[in-house]
Amino acid sequence: MYTVQSVVCYTLYAVTTIFVFKFVTNNVKEPYMDEYFHYHQAKNYCIGNYKHWDPSITTPPGLYLTTQAIEFIITSYQLLNVEKCSLLLMRLTNLLFMLALPFIFTMVYRKIRQEEKESSSYKTSSCMLSSLCLCSHPLIYFFTFLYYTDIGSLFFTMSSLTLHYYNKHLNASIFAIISIVYRQTNIILVLYLIGLTVLNEFRSNCSQSQILRLYVYSQSETRSSIEYLKNNYSITLGHQQHHQFVLHFAQLPYFILYTTFFIIMHIVTNKKHLVNFRQFIFKHPFVVVFLILLTFLFIKYFTYEHLFLISDNRHYTFYIWSKFFKRYVAFRYLLIPVYVSCSILLYLQLYDRSLINVILLLVCILLATVLQKLLEFRYFILPYCLLRLQLNEKQSTKIALFLEILQATIINAVTIYVFCNKPFLWPDNENIQRFMW
């Protein structure tokens, strides 16, 4: 059951999201950037032309198949007066996913907190508030209103994770497969679920045969992923020349800084976090030195500059990179103490700091980030959610959650306003360009 507070919070979130959806749709009436490829591919599916495939598309056809199913339901039951195969209908796909995601996250949070001592009503409202924090995350929220694969991919990965937590392993596997049909890189979630299963089996003192079976299965999944990378030298289906497989270890400190920025309210609102941070520094000086040296090596020898990053001025990462990281090479190294401090702070935020859990989470984050040559914040969405779900909110207050939502809301308001109302033109191109993540 949901409390009145939970219902009110969700209703406010849903109404706001629908309003923003209408605002974006009314201001951006043509497919923009990658939407162009997804829209025309979905349109072919919509008219029954399943043989057509645009080689520029980098992901499997899960999004288009889902849109077709939703279109069939809407037109069959005349639920909405929406033009068949329209951009509005296609964008509606992600809106529906986004309206459902808070309940998915809430179920995960309930399971994680089931042994906490707070009253059930407090836990329910707190879980919904935490879920809305995740759904309001700027990268997730922004791409809700465009016909991209991110939101559908997140919906099915998180649904699979939720079912896993409730021991519905067959259903979890089905949703994991669907998530891979959305984005092939979601194989990382499969490996994460296998890791969680192994961890739980170890903790429940299962038999050696069970552990062996899980180990063999995980090895087969890992081998299939590695074989794909070896054979294609890429992590995408199309445009493989622009998505080459590299070991971009500098992505890890970028991700750590990115994540810390968006959960900073949980750190600054509780002095205990800073006390624990100081104690960690003094108790583990060798760990700190090791992290400094490791980060230095990542930046020195494993930093890559993708062509898109330095040439496409429609993305915020272009300005971050060109104004700071590219212009001042020393700036990359000056951030090392910040990266290390953020790493420690994030570690201290985890509710399960056991070695095997930290390793499992770290491996999944590495797989999701360092194989990407391009610095693009969209690639951080899945690892961010996995880490955010591990946040120990027993040490946080509702004030921290409200501040997190406020921070996200301000960023969302600015980025969506700029995207819709501040278009610009390239000198050699008559098409309207827009600023985006």
From TrEMBL:
Localization (cell): Endoplasmic reticulum membrane
Superkingdom: Eukaryota
Membrane-protein topology: Multi-pass membrane protein
Family (UniProt): Belongs to the ALG10 glucosyltransferase family.
EC numbers on record: 2.4.1.256
Species per Swiss-Prot/TrEMBL record: Didymodactylos carnosus
Transmembrane segments: 7-24, 88-109, 129-149, 169-194, 245-268, 280-299, 329-348, 354-371, 399-419
Reactions that this protein is recorded to catalyse: an alpha-D-Glc-(1->3)-alpha-D-Glc-(1->3)-alpha-D-Man-(1->2)-alpha-D-Man-(1->2)-alpha-D-Man-(1->3)-[alpha-D-Man-(1->2)-alpha-D-Man-(1->3)-[alpha-D-Man-(1->2)-alpha-D-Man-(1->6)]-alpha-D-Man-(1->6)]-beta-D-Man-(1->4)-beta-D-GlcNAc-(1->4)-alpha-D-GlcNAc-diphospho-di-trans,poly-cis-dolichol + a di-trans,poly-cis-dolichyl beta-D-glucosyl phosphate = a alpha-D-Glc-(1->2)-alpha-D-Glc-(1->3)-alpha-D-Glc-(1->3)-alpha-D-Man-(1->2)-alpha-D-Man-(1->2)-alpha-D-Man-(1->3)-[alpha-D-Man-(1->2)-alpha-D-Man-(1->3)-[alpha-D-Man-(1->2)-alpha-D-Man-(1->6)]-alpha-D-Man-(1->6)]-beta-D-Man-(1->4)-beta-D-GlcNAc-(1->4)-alpha-D-GlcNAc-diphospho-di-trans,poly-cis-dolichol + a di-trans,poly-cis-dolichyl phosphate + H(+)
Keywords: Endoplasmic reticulum, Glycosyltransferase, Membrane, Transferase, Transmembrane, Transmembrane helix
Function: Dol-P-Glc:Glc(2)Man(9)GlcNAc(2)-PP-Dol alpha-1,2-glucosyltransferase that operates in the biosynthetic pathway of dolichol-linked oligosaccharides, the glycan precursors employed in protein asparagine (N)-glycosylation. The assembly of dolichol-linked oligosaccharides begins on the cytosolic side of the endoplasmic reticulum membrane and finishes in its lumen. The sequential addition of sugars to dolichol pyrophosphate produces dolichol-linked oligosaccharides containing fourteen sugars, including two GlcNAcs, nine mannoses and three glucoses.
Cellular-component GO terms for this entry: endoplasmic reticulum membrane
Protein's name in the database: Dol-P-Glc:Glc(2)Man(9)GlcNAc(2)-PP-Dol alpha-1,2-glucosyltransferase
GO MF annotation, one: dolichyl pyrophosphate Glc2Man9GlcNAc2 alpha-1,2-glucosyltransferase activity
GO biological process: dolichol-linked oligosaccharide biosynthetic process
UniProt pathway annotation: Protein modification; protein glycosylation
Primary enzyme class: transferase
